[in-house]
Amino acid sequence: MGKLEIAQEIMNNKIISSFLEKLIDWKEFEFFVADIYSESSEVIVQHDITLLGKSNAKRQIDVYITQKTKLHTYTTIVECKRWKKPVTRQVIDILFASLEDLNASKGVIFTTHGYEEGAIKYAKNKNIDIFIVRDIREDEYGNLGKTFSLYLQMLHARIENFDLQNLKWFSPLGLPLSKQPPKFDIHFAKEQIYPEHQQLVDLKLNNGPNLVKLLIDIRADLLKRRLDSFHYLLQPESDILEIGYKTRIKLDFTNYKYKFIRHDNGFIQFDSIYFDFVNCIDQSKMTFDKTESLDFALIVENYISKQRNFVSKPKTESKIKLSEPIKIDNTGINESEFLQPNSIIRLTTEHYVSFEFKKETKITETKDIVVNLINQ
After folding, report:
1. Nearest Cα to 268, choosing from 209, 180, 188, 195?
2. Nearest Cα to 96, choosing from 47, 53, 33?
3. All structural domains of the chain with their residue ranges
4. Largest Cα span, the chain
5. 3-state SS string over 278-342?
């Protein structure tokens, strides 16, 4: 086995935290096993009882499960061994003797430290289920592991300091201007309003975009450019950090047919609009623990069939939860399709979301950008 294989084996068997320590002694372990079976409402679970067998010998049973149907009654004898050594064949033999003496349907052993090889073979021959209760390995918590961190980068942007340069008014009929041009106040809101006097048209009075809608779309495009060009973590990673950019934008209407707004007896023609594109990127680290809401989470594994089940207890509930058998099948899975630990999640805000820079945030002024509007 090479170094890489050894390292992978160590990682796969790494236990991040030991919930098994919560099961302090053998008596609590018996209660734990009894609670696992009590998870089902179809059985009667008795703890620490003594039964008289066919041989008139008294048999002490750690956990005794009875399941009744309309036609039959099934009984299961469970032995609980909270030991620091593997269970021996002798323990299996004693359980098998109890099964026969009590006419029980099934025998089961739970332990925390495994089984000797001879005990495993003997249990298999006698149709006795043997389980180990153990902590969950890191690889069994799934793709992200038990504890993982993600970085959230929020990208905010606003456009401000508008300057409408070289506005022109003309009348195709040669009529004089009788009304003052409207104020082009730009307001952004969640329930966005698109004023009629800011509707862009061509000289044939075909509607183009509303000026407000055009600016919202330009902002979104500029923000996407920033998003596409930003692919790194801000340092130091553990802090809540923020950086800012300020870019002067020229919106050029020269070759755009919808560069007119109807006014009075003619049109107002746009030449260019200047504004500041102010962009903020703030980063925060989020750490998650999949067991944070649990008193404990463990694996119950059948030593013979290798079936595994999660068993856990939420802090807000009084009962144990037993999962369906765990199925792990990595066939055909592309790891790149899954979120990885320390991934960066980037989100952009809508045009109406306001933000303010922190006092210590450095704002970098970048090179001016010209946006040439094109006809579609």
Report:
1. 180
2. 53
3. 12-135, 149-287+346-372
4. 121
5. EEEEEEEEEEEECCCCEEEEEEEEECCCCCEEEEEEECCCCCCEECCCCCCCCCCCCHHHCCCCC
Nearest CA to 146 out of 14, 41, 300, 285 is that of: 14
Per-residue pLDDT of the chain (376 residues; tens, 9 = 90+): 444 443 444 344 444 457 887 776 778 899 999 999 998 888 999 999 999 999 999 999 999 999 998 899 999 999 999 998 999 999 999 999 999 999 999 999 999 999 999 999 999 999 899 999 999 988 888 878 888 999 999 999 999 999 998 899 888 888 888 888 888 888 999 999 999 999 999 999 999 999 999 999 999 999 999 999 988 899 887 777 999 999 999 999 999 999 999 998 899 999 999 999 999 999 999 999 999 999 899 999 999 999 999 999 999 998 899 999 987 654 544 544 567 888 899 999 999 999 999 999 999 999 999 999 998 7
Distance CA(52)–CA(278), nearest Å, equals 83
pTM assigned to the model: 0.70
- HEC string of 337-361 equals HCCCCCCEEEEECCCCCCCCCCCCC
d(CA 76, CA 48): 13
Let me know the angle formed at the C-alpha of 290 by 29 and 32, rounded to the nearest 5 degrees. Answer: 10
Q: What is the DSSP letter of 141?
A: G
Characterise 342 by phi-psi region: left (phi > 0), alpha (psi -120 to 50), beta (else). left
Between CA 84 and CA 15 the distance in angstroms is: 18
Q: Is 224 in a helix, a strand, or coil?
A: helix
User: CA angle at residue 247 from 212 to 209, to 5 degrees?
Assistant: 20
The closest alpha carbon to 344, from 236, 232, 245, 229, belongs to 232
| Nearest of 139, 126, 29 to residue 84 by alpha carbon | 29
CATH of domain 12-135: 3.40.1350.10
Q: Residue 29: how many CB atoms within 10 A of its CB?
A: 21
